[in-house]
Specification:
The chain is of the alpha+beta class and about 160 residues long. It has 3 helices and 9 strands. The protein has a single domain, classed as Nucleoside Triphosphate Pyrophosphohydrolase, CATH 3.90.79.10. A hairpin with a 2-residue loop joins strand 3 and strand 4.
Length: about 160
């Protein structure tokens, strides 16, 4: 079984006293599906919301990869607050060799610093249909995958217990 190590971020922003989180929507149009590097995205019939994440480049530090993936997939720059957790799962590649892959994703809680959400390079549209802000309190119900729902819950717990943020 192959192994993949990735990093991602739960980016939060407080606006008008309310916490928001950056999420990405996978592309839904058939023309957007395809292979980009080692990853492909299938066309989805409805919106699939995820957290920004991706493979760690050779020699890259895990946190640096998380910050880079956030910037590439959302268009925003964020600063680290704390590591949330690692999630682990197995998936079967839906492209190429159809191999089973054991994946570990390290997620960080990040705070918005600058940039405009969804201001991403056109070649990223193969992976990201759009990026947007969602209410952090709603994120565990909106995100598509169990491990990412858990990361949103951890982020919500963190902001509720750290009034100084």
């Amino acid at each position: 079984m192959m192994r993949e190590i990735s990093a991602g971020g739960v980016v939060i922003r407080k606006k008008d006293g309310v916490w928001w989180m950056a999420a990405i929507e996978l592309p839904r149009t058939p023309g957007a599906a395809g292979e980009l590097g080692k990853r492909a995205v299938r066309a989805k019939p409805k919106a699939v919301l995820c957290l920004p994440k991706g493979l760690i480049d050779p020699g890259e530090k895990v946190l640096d990869a998380a910050l880079r993936e956030v910037r590439e997939e959302t268009g925003i720059v964020a600063v680290p607050i704390t590591k949330l957790a690692d999630i682990k799962y197995v998936y079967v590649r839906s492209w190429g060799d159809g191999q089973r892959v054991f994946k570990i994703v390290s997620f960080y809680l990040l705070r918005y610093d600058s940039g405009t959400i969804d201001d991403i390079a056109e070649d990223m549209r193969v992976e990201v249909g759009r990026a947007s802000w969602v209410l952090l309190k709603d994120a565990p119900q909106l995100l598509a995958y169990g491990g990412e729902k858990q990361m949103a819950r951890k982020a919500l717990e963190y902001v509720e217990s750290h009034a100084e943020l």
